[in-house]
Each structure stands twice: as C-alpha cells, then as structure tokens.
Design brief:
Sulfate adenylyltransferase; five-stranded mixed beta sheet; alpha+beta; single chain
Length: 112
C-alpha cells in the first residue's frame, strides 16, 4: 500500500503534471523506486473529510541539500516557473517554518 504525500500547495501543478520535483522536511527514509499517492491534503482533515488521491508517482531520486541550493530550473520543476530562487526559498520558509539554510530532501519523481 503506497504512502500518501500531500501536495496541498501545488495541487494544480500535480494535476497538470508540471511538477516533477518537491522539497520536503522529513521523509528521510524515502528511496528511489518508492511509489506514493500524491494527495490534495493528508493532515488537518475536518470530521468526515477523506484523503483525495490525485495520482500516483514514483520516486526517481532523493538527496539532501540546503534549501537555498535551489536553481531556476528546479523552481520550474517545482511547478513555479515564474518564481526566482529567492522567491521560492521565501515561499517555502513561510509555509514550513524553516530557514534558507535548512537541509531538505529534494525528491525527484515521475508520474505513473
């Protein structure tokens, strides 16, 4: 049974299949080849709400790196082609309560 990964802030990018990389705090045990359910939201569901699976993805590569190592190419792969690297880092930090120097898992994936 695949684990669920939330894409609450990038649901449209997952639906459009324009997102092929995600950065996460945690997920340290994740390995290439793992299949995940890409979901709208996994936590903070209201009573009676159920997890909505958008699609399944397969992890291609996982590596740990400081958040501020992101490139413009990865901003695009994250689903934000209009953002600069500084804008993406600020966005990520605001939603994840971290700093630009925080080590994150950069997870590359493909759609099944």
């Amino acid at each position: 049974m695949p684990k669920n990964m939330s894409f609450m802030l990038t649901t449209e990018q997952i639906r459009n299949k324009t997102k092929t990389v995600t950065r996460r705090l945690g997920w340290d045990g994740l390995r290439a080849g793992t299949i995940l359910n890409a979901c709208e939201k996994c936590q903070g569901l209201k009573a009676g709400e159920k997890i909505k699976v958008i699609c399944q993805i397969r992890v291609k590569l996982v590596r740990k790196q400081p958040l501020n190592y992101i490139t413009l190419e990865d901003c695009k792969r994250e689903g934000f082609p209009e953002m600069s690297t500084k804008e993406f880092v600020k966005f990520f930090c605001e939603h994840n309560e971290c700093t630009p120097y925080t080590l994150v898992n950069r997870i590359e994936f493909e759609y099944l």
